[in-house]
Structure formats: C-alpha cells, structure tokens
Amino acid sequence: MKTKIQYVAGKICICFMAWVGSAGVLTAQPFIHPGILHSKEDLARMKTAVALQQQPVYSGYLVFIKDSASQYTYKMQGPLKTVGRNPGVSAAYDNDANAAHQNAVMWCITGDHRYAQKAIEIVNAWAATLTAVTGRDAILMAGLGPFKMINAAELLRYTGAGWKAADIRKAEWHFKEVIYPVLKDYAPFANGNWDAAALKTCMAIGVFCNDRPVFEDALRYYTHGWGNGSIGNYIINTSGQIQESGRDQPHSQLGIGMLAECCAIAWNQGLDLYGYDNNRLLKGFEYVAGYNLGKDDLPFSEWLDRTGKYHHYRMSDKGRGQLRPLYEQVYAHYVGTKKLPAPGVAAVVEKIRPEGPGRPGADHPGYGTLYYAAAGEPADAKPAPPAGLFAQGFNKEVQLSWIAPGTGSGDITYMVKRSGLPAGPFKTIAENIRITRFSDKTVVPGHRYYYTVAAVGKKGRSSDAFIQPAVAGLPRGWLQEDIGPVAPGNTCFDGTRFNIEAFGAGPGKTGDGFHYTFFPVKGNAMLECRIDPQPGSQFSMIGLMLRKDLTEGAPFVSLFLYPGKTEHIEEPDWHTRFEARAKQGGGITTLAKGAGLTAPAVTFGRLTGSYWLRVQKHGNRIAAFVSYDGAQWREAGSSPADPGDSRFLGIAVASGMTNSTNVRIRQVRVNGQPLNVQQ
Q1: What top-level branch of life does the organism fall under (predicted)?
Q2: How far is residue 259's CA from residue 233's CA, in Å, rounded to a whole number?
Q3: Is beta strand 573-581 parallel, antiparallel or unpaired with respect to 648-654?
C-alpha cells in the first residue's frame, strides 16, 4: 500500500545531559549483577534445564555445545593492537568475542573451570592489547563484537570464576577508554541498526563499569534519540514498519534484534523497556516476522528517514525469509512472561527452534532457545527505581517522562520530586501519578531545576531515579524564532547545552529558512560556541549570525558550517563560509570560504568531533574565527561594515532537507562570559 510521504517531524527538543551529581546520588542506584544479557535467575534456569534435559532449553544446549566457539580448546585468533571495519580487520576480534561469551556461558552452566579460564584468557588478551577501533564503519566494529566481550566479562566477574581484580580493572579501563569513545555519540548519520549497535554496547558498558551516567544516557537515546535507531524512529508507526523495511530484511532484523537486546539489559536492571510506548518493540517484531513468513498484505508507508539520505518507496523483498536467531528472546518475554499475543513471533520460533549462532560475525548473541526459553514471571517485589528520566524545558513548564520499572506487581504509581540544587533538598511536587510522564507548570523562566522520580507499589516504594536537570525556557535575554516559511523548530537549554531542532534550507538568495536562537545587541558584541558531534542530518547548516531584524530576507553577516556536496552523499565536504547580505531581499555574498574540515572534527565526511565558531563585532568591523579545540583560533574572514546596523546576534540552524535536524551547541560564551542560569 502506498501512502503519502510521512516525515518524522519534531516538536521534541532532545535535551540530553550526562549529569554527574554528588557521590551520594551516583551510588544511590547500584546495578544488578550479573545483569547484561544474563541474570542470576537466567543462569540458574539454564543450568537446571540442562541438568534435567528439560525441553526446549536442552535442545538449544545441544546446538550450543557443537559450536567451536563454545569449546575451551578454542584457539584465540588475536589479540591485535588495532581492529577496524571498512577498511580494516574485524574477523579475529568477532570470533574471539563469540568464544569469550560462549565459554563464559559454558562455565556458568557446567561449573567446569576450563571454560572460565578460556574466557578470561581472551578478555585479558584483548583488553591488554587493543588500543584503537578504526574505519568508516568503526561504530559497527565497536558495537558488535565488544558487546559479546563485555557480556563475557560480566559473567566472569560475578560468578566466582577466579578473575583477578587487577585484570578486571584493566578490562573496565579498556571498555571505557577504547570502546566507549567510538560509541558515545551513537550514529545518527546512518541507518538505524548502527544506532542500535551503539546503544546496546553503551548500556552494557554502563552496567559492567557501574557507570550510571553512561547507562542513563543510552536509555534516553533509546526513547528520545534523534537518530534512526531510537525506538520511535526505527519502528516508524503503529503498524510496526521498520525504518529499514524498504532496504532489506536482514538489516531490518539486525536493527530490531539489537533494540530487543537493549530491552533485555534494561529488564535485568529492573526496567520495562520492552513495554515502552505501548509495547512498540513487539509491533515491530510482528511486522518483520509476518513479512518474512510470507505475509503480503502488510501496510507500507513511503518513508524518508531522519538523515534525509534513505528514501524508501516500497517494501524490499531482498533477503526475505532469511530468519535470524533473535525471536526466542522476545517470544519468551511477551508471550511467556507478559502473556501477550504474538502470533508472528510464535510462528517464527516454531519454525527455527532451536536457535543457532548469531552470525555473521558477532551480529547477535544467538542461541535464544538456550538463553531465554521457559523464562518465568518476575518475583513479586518492591518496584525498581524508574530510569531514563527525560526532562524538556519550556518557558512555562518542564515536561518529564521516564521508563517504568519491570518489577513490582499491582498498580504502580509515581511521585515526582524537585530541587533547586543538585544535592537537594528535594521536595515532592506530585504524587499518585499513574502514567510515566508529568508536566511541572510551577517553574520560573530561566531557572534550572533538578528532578527525580520514585515508583510506589504494594510492596513498597523504590529508591529515587537518577537525577535529571532542566531549565525552564532559555537563559535570560535569549529568544528564539523561525525565520522564513519553515516548519516550527525549537530550542531548549539544559543548563549546559542548547539543543536545537530546526527545519529549512538555510539562508537563501532572496529569502531564508532556519531556526534562530538569539539575543539583542547594541554596539560591540561577541558570540562563540562549540558544535557537538553528530547532528541529526548531514545536510545541516549550523552557524552564528548577526542580523538586522527577524524578517525573511533581512540583511545579515554569518559564519556557517556547511556540508558541501560531493560525489558521495555519505561524505559531504564540511567547510565554513563567511557570508553577508547587504540589503533587504538582496543576494548573498561569500566573503570567505574555508578549506574542508579534517580530523578530529570530521572523519569520513562525518562530524564525529567538535568544532568551534566565533563572530565578533567591533565598531563597524565584523570578524569570524574558527577552532578545532576552542583554544587555538584562526580568523576565517572579516567584513569592513555592518549591513543594516545589526540588532540581533545568535545561532542559526537549518536542516537542509524536508525533515528536521537536531543540533547540540555547548560552551556558549557571550562577550567572553559563559551563559548564566539561575538556581
């Protein structure tokens, strides 16, 4: 079925902030261990089922033990100092990661210490040797194999395997300092399976390294991220259509399978990410399962993705019917634990059970029949604290949402607390909330607040959620406006960073289309900022602008970061332009054009690093400066006059496509001073 194009538009300004509060706050929510893909209860269930040869788990075990990666005699293929993908070498790492994970599972099931020793050998060797993950597809390289390696490490650390404390610390350092930097900004420039790979491994790193900010940031991206891999952008509608359904079926399964792995991690930490947005994940699985089982009457909507690069007009039959081993997990949860109907998923499970390895490479954990079949209902307990608390500030309210706990029975209600200081004291501002969202309308514009949420069930009250700050509206004196005939954008501020959603084609020959976040100026003025990595669109135009007024076609002087066109849509030529329009409705003059940006700001045509811009007005002279580090600046151009006696100075952002873009701007300084918000 063909429908009109549906665009993912946004009124949601993505306000993420990796908040680090007091030590007391950070230690208030300990992680559950082991707690990535396999919980203590999972391991006990597998061990019992294998010992008693209970079906279907035992059939999964028989397949599992035939894999060469499940043997303690496995011969390690690494380690290497550098691994990469497109170009690079990845097979040795992926194969060793499979073996580390599967030997760790074998240790937990059999108690044979030789399996533990093999897994320890592999994890230690790579943690001590690997120093870099490279290549155009480095995010996939860092998001797939390392996920298995971290799962192995989690099992070894928390099952009495005899792993030395010094080696555990080295592994923690390795995952945080070598793997995490590749993944921390996710992959909003790519198809959604890239985001999903980054998400699951960031969550795993958060758990293993007991790093709550890393874990919480990944949860917020899963629910509210600006890339194709957040749950609402990957499963694009309530029919369950996948962002990659028009690309091919293997990638659609890859992406949705990894989002399910995120849910498994969250579940083992007491969170019901599976149930988020009315079980949206299940809708996607039913859609993918149905089509790959031969169902031809599924609705399909023409779709332009979040990057603006991938436009699909019809369902792709490429790889149709090539079912991957990732359905048993969601069947066990939705049907076994939650007692929900999932006929498509059930049919796939019946068709491919027992599930085998998660290859190619290290794409999936695989072996779901062993890992997940016969999972029972969670024990009745006090609810876990909510997580993934998301706060979005407007002038007259702060909107909150969060992920519900997966533990606790009966009616769960929530209480919201707020403080003007990160260390408190916190005051309860709402109770008996029965949904996972709340709007605080008792705020003062320009003030920063700190929020937390607790769940209340019949077994008691949870501890408080990880604190999330928000600012009501923009800093004092700042305003925002859509310039030209564009869809409405939005800017929010989290106390540290502007988060801007914008549409439009940017400054034009006779008119403009962008979102402008600005303040009035009189006389001399200076504005500088840092552009964060990974905007939502690779067509984004991001800059600083002096402007006479807010009408379309007004005179201006600007310094923009532009994505110049190249032969390859995936690799734009990012460069700066210093431009001006001298009169109302006049043409635009390029006063200076910078050379293409290089590393660390740009790699493989992607804004993978930060870049700094500065515009300074002194008398009638306007000068522009750029920097790779915010310390060493280079003049990028100057103008001897101020067209139209500019009255406003601010940040201008355009998406360069029909969809919106999301851009994050931090380290904003006005006349050399950082922005000030009131507590």
Answers
A1: Bacteria
A2: 12
A3: unpaired
Question: Locate tokens 């429908």: which residue?
Answer: 3
Number of neighbours of residue 592 by Cβ within 10 angstroms = 15
**Judgement on whether residues 539 and 610 belong to the same structural domain of the protein:** yes
260 and 121 inside one domain: no
Whether 60 maps to a domain, the answer reads yes
User: 25 in a domain, yes or no?
Assistant: no
The per-type count for the chain, helices as H runs and strands as E runs, is 16, 28
CATH code for the domain in which residue 464 is found: 2.60.40.10
Q: How many whole angstroms separate alpha carbon 547 and alpha carbon 553?
A: 10
Letter string b/e over residues 255-274, b meaning 16 or more CB atoms within 10 A of that residue's CB: bbbbbbbbbbbbbbbbbbbb
Domain total of the chain? 4
Give 396's Cβ-side CA count (13 Å radius): 0
Tokens of 13: 């300004």
Torsion of CA 357, 78, 207, 141, to 10 degrees: -70
Domain, as residue range, for 459: 387-471
Could you list the mean pLDDT of each consecutive 10-residue stretch along the chain, which spans 679 residues? Answer: 34 47 49 98 97 97 98 98 90 97 99 99 99 96 98 99 98 98 96 98 99 98 97 97 98 98 98 97 99 97 94 97 98 96 98 96 96 81 93 93 84 96 96 97 94 94 95 94 96 93 92 96 94 93 96 95 92 96 92 96 94 94 96 94 80 96 97 82
| One domain for residues 621 and 605 | yes
Q: Are residues 178 and 230 in the same domain?
A: no
- Residues 105, 43: Cα–Cα separation, whole Å: 8
pTM (predicted TM-score): 0.94
On whether the CB atoms of residues 98 and 365 are closer than 8 A, the answer is no
Shared-domain flag, residues 485 and 575: yes
Same domain, 591 and 658: yes
196 domain-assigned: no
d(CA 60, CA 603): 43
The residue out of 377, 400, 429 marking a domain boundary is 377
DSSP run (H or E) holding 670: strand 661-670
Answer yes or no: do 80 and 101 share one domain.
yes
The sign one gets for the Cα dihedral 406, 409, 410, 413 is negative
Q: What is the pLDDT of residues 111-162, one digit of tens each?
A: 999 999 999 999 999 999 999 999 999 999 999 999 999 999 999 999 999 9
- Do 542 and 622 lie in a common domain? yes
Q: What is the CA radius of gyration of the chain?
A: 26
Task: For residue range 501-550, list pLDDT tens digits in order.
Answer: 999 999 998 789 999 999 999 889 999 999 999 999 889 999 999 999 99
